[in-house]
Amino acid sequence: MKIICIGRNYRKHIEELNNEKPSSPVIFIKPDSSIILKNQPFFIPDYSNEIHYEAEVILKICKLGKSIDKKFANRYYNKISLGIDFTARDLQNELKTMGLPWEKSKAFDGSALIGDWIDKNEFKNCNDLNFLLKKNGNDVQVGNTSNMLWSFDELISEISKFFTLKIGDVIFTGTPSGVNKVIENDVFEGFIENKNVFKINIK
């Protein structure tokens, strides 16, 4: 399986990092080795002094697809959750300055947290989902999928132009504003529509 990630899909997050609004979704990949095993902590790597959390609604692909029309895209995922795209921001900024790929800052081992999956049919409207990330009991990222620049269906259609989607693949759909640095002993909890889908410690 592969993890396909979307960058710059929330306007306020684009603004907080002083990035330019893209004309099409920014797509990058994480390998399966980036997935944090269930009930394991996130270990801050020794090659970064500025690891940021980025909470994102995630989709689980349930059907093989290539060049998917947007009007059929909702058939290709059946489960939704919240995840964290852990990012070595100092390394990412260095790589961006040199015009180099982001993989070392985004796709390192243990950089992807995947929450507990929920059947999408449990939600009234997937285009209007509230989600929340708490850090040490305080709200740090509050989002709604209606604020995405590109919807789930639009993302699936765009991604499938370039990559064949396979059963079990995961899509990270972008993060809202509020990203910041993680510190040892932090505790993060993720919620979608008041459903708690993960709790993780930082080591």
Task: Describe this entry's structure for a reader.
The chain has about 200 residues and is an alpha+beta fold. It has a single domain, classed as Fumarylacetoacetate hydrolase, domain 2. The chain has four helices and 14 strands. Strands 1, 2, 4, 5, 7, 8 and 11 form a seven-stranded mixed sheet that branches. The radius of gyration is 16 Å and the shape is globular.
Give the SSE layout.
Layout: E1 3-7, H1 11-16, E2 26-30, E3 51-53, E4 55-61, E5 77-85, E6 87-88, H2 89-97, H3 103-106, E7 112-114, E8 118-119, E9 130-135, E10 138-144, H4 152-162, E11 170-172, E12 180-181, E13 187-192, E14 195-201
Parallel strand pairs: 1-11
Antiparallel strand pairs: 1-2, 3-6, 3-12, 4-5, 4-11, 5-7, 5-8, 9-10, 9-13, 13-14
- By DSSP, the count of extended strands is 14
Radius of gyration: 16 Å
CATH architectural type: Alpha-Beta Complex
Kindly report the average pLDDT value. 95
Derived structural class? alpha+beta
What would you give as the CATH superfamily? Fumarylacetoacetase-like, C-terminal domain
Tell me, what is the CATH class?
Answer: Alpha Beta
Short description:
The protein has helices at 11-16, 89-97, 103-106, 152-162, and strands at 3-7, 26-30, 51-53, 55-61, 77-85, 87-88, 112-114, 118-119, 130-135, 138-144, 170-172, 180-181, 187-192, 195-201. With 203 residues, it is an alpha+beta fold. Strands 1, 2, 4, 5, 7, 8 and 11 form a 7-stranded mixed sheet that branches.
